Amino acid sequence: MNRLAMAALVSLAVVSPKVAAQQTGTGNDEEDVRALAAQLESLKASYAQEVRRLRELDMQVQAIQARVSGKTAQALPTPPPAVAQAAQDEPAPPAAATAPTGEGYASTAAEAQQAKEAARRSVDDVKQQQSALFNRRLTLENSISYARYDRKQLTLNGFLALDAIFLGNIAIENVESDTATYNFAARWGVNPRLTLNLDVPYLARKTVYQKGGAGGSAAGIAQEETNGNGIGDVSFTANYKLFGERGWRPETVLTGGVTAPTGREPYGLDWKVIERDDDDFIRFAVPSRQPTGNGVWQANIGLSAVKTADPAILFANIGYIRSFKRSFDDLDSNPDTINPGEVRLGDSYYFGAGVAFAFNERTSLSISFSDKLSARASTRYKNGQWVKVIGSDANAGTLNLGVTYALTNKATFVSMLGVGLTPDAPDFSLSFKLPYML
């Protein structure tokens, strides 16, 4: 019995350390499992965040490339299979692992797409004003513009005696004109390279004529006001994209079109006689109503270029306008006579250049210079010879300041102030446009 008790005590002494060791090992394993599980969850959250960041960076690269090239991406690029599978299998990250929106990248694919569209919006607005947008099926544009024109001219009728004394009549002529124009334009994108445009203007004009020397007295001033309104000359043009923007090469667009004489021509209008001299010679006469068109057919061809140089957008254009001769029943401004004949307006050349800066995804500012050079017009009475009209040539230079604001994804508000730099240009002009893209 003693021997049996002694054996039991020895067995218990041997087994007890093993049990204690097993119990201690089990506790350590549980702690290791918990630590490894925590590390695994942390790595999963970090991996999910890195996968999301990879997707966002890829979208940002595509957005920048679209802005630089000026092209619209048709669809988001397909991520690699490994990234796509990881994106599907990624667990929802904890709130602390979610990237804040202020860190410079989107948190979803929809936000990345919106960022891409915002990045190219300023470029599209500049292209729309300079040439055309080829990725829009239909654009309807309503615009209102106002122009102020004031020109004074000193007329001397006499001779200079003793190199110091002028003998005769001194008359000052002043013409003040205000023109308001509403223009409706429709622009249809036929394909990615061709766009057709139709412009239909409606004009309202008021002109005040002032003439000094009324009644033979230098102090006398006569004044008369005339008005006129109606549809202007309708234009039909086409834009064809020759080259897309790539590297150093700008996007280049060829423009061609015709202008029909649908407005009221300035020839053959009835004139009102304000004053005659003692010999019944007309001293002061004005047209009874104002014209709304130039009266002849015209054709134009031009080139425009747009180049992005982030954050600036450079643009320029050059063109030529050809006027065709046309016959009229009366060319004489004298209301007492009728002299039929032909008119041939001088050809014109125009050019311009400017730069636009994007303040943000909605607002941009542009500054540009434009100039139009017109040759002298010629007239020919029936059975006569062509005679150039003195003073009919013109050089109209204008400095333009514009602000563009994107109201919505489809509508844009454009304002433009033009300041005349030469006597032949309007003193100033102000225009507002609202293109709506369908």
From TrEMBL:
Spell out the protein name for this chain.
Transporter
Q: Which organism is it from?
A: Stenotrophomonas capsici
Q: Which domain of life is it from?
A: Bacteria
Per UniProt, the ranges with Low complexity bias are: 83-116
UniProt KW keywords: Coiled coil, Signal
Region span, Disordered: 69-124
Q: Where is the secretion signal located?
A: 1-20
Q: Which residues form a coiled coil?
A: 37-67
